[in-house]
Amino acid sequence: MAKDKPKISLLLTGGGARAAYQVGVLKAIAEWYPRVHHSPFSIYCGTSAGAINAISIACYASCFRLGVKKLEWIWSQLHSRKVFNASSYGMTSYLAKQWFARLQADYHERPPFGLLNNRPLRQLLNQVNNYERLEKQILAGNLHGVSVTASSYKSGGSVSFFQGQKELTEWDQAKSKGRRTLITTEHLLASSAIPLIFPATRIGQTYYGDGSIHQLAPLRPSLRMGADKIFIIDLINQKVSERDHTKAPGLATLGGHLMDTIFSDTMTADLEHLSRTNTLIQALPEHEQQRLQLKNVDYIHLSPSQSFGLLAQKYYCHMPPMPRALMRLAGVSPSDDAAITSYILFEPDYIHALINMGYQDALEQDTILRNFLK
């Protein structure tokens, strides 16, 4: 990688099954480059399902198209039973074990709670990810840094586990820490452990959950690793119609509202802060910028043009019977707000629709994205 070339960070946010949209965007971008071209990104930062995508393509930083092609293949082969145990026996026995464990005496260690058993996801990640390639890409200079953000249930703060060049240093800021480590499947499972849905993951002596929960500054890992530009592929759910505000919200509506809040609100605030900072830096003379070691950080914030809810309603019937029955018991149905469903609908037709949506959205922004990634 040329030393004078700007460091561009790829920032992938969380959103469960919605993260297939990010694959479509990256697929469109990969088509601009030759087959053996290195990645336009030298920094990868991910949270939740976005972390899984980030690590997968970071392993192929020296051959961007190959990395994206493999990522697309993984998602195209995905279905619910490869992410969580979706059989009637498997779900019933898992929930029964969770219930019995909480009837035991306090001195027995209780497993972390989750409605769905994500052991199949652990097996899948171990099969498809070659974590040794990350260090090889770093040593070869193809990769400056990569981070996976999780939420600590012990401290109540956000922890970004990162791996990268020697000059990268750890950080301790308000509700945010950066810790150097060798990234493994455990970090990805921790970052993607959506509260109540998937169980928390233990790393060392601490349990971690979805990285979006306490992530007050989503841009911080990219900035701390020296990004000159940040390309953000967000998974904000577009609202296409207003609800009847005179009708009391049900469990599905409340759950969807909370999920969307966890995964999207802090990004807007952090981008506003970055924009104000850039404006202040640009107002300073160039020699002052150099003396204070300040730089303008450009960014593009790409989000879906359509609602995930409409697609989730369309493909809701593709979900296996047992998870669908569990959601029915919780008050979630196709006629309700489908925001919750859109996070856990790991079914081929829904995933293909999301990939296609991301691909088309990237094509519509073709000129802007090409100029940004120069």
From TrEMBL:
InterPro entries for this protein: Acyl_Trfase/lysoPLipase, NTE, PNPLA_dom
Gene3D superfamilies with a match to the protein in the record: Cytosolic phospholipase A2 catalytic domain
Active site (UniProt): 48, 210
Keywords associated with the record: Hydrolase, Lipid degradation, Lipid metabolism
The PNPLA domain, residue ranges: 10-225
A biological process term (GO) from this entry: lipid catabolic process
Protein name per UniProt: Patatin
Organism annotation: Photobacterium lipolyticum
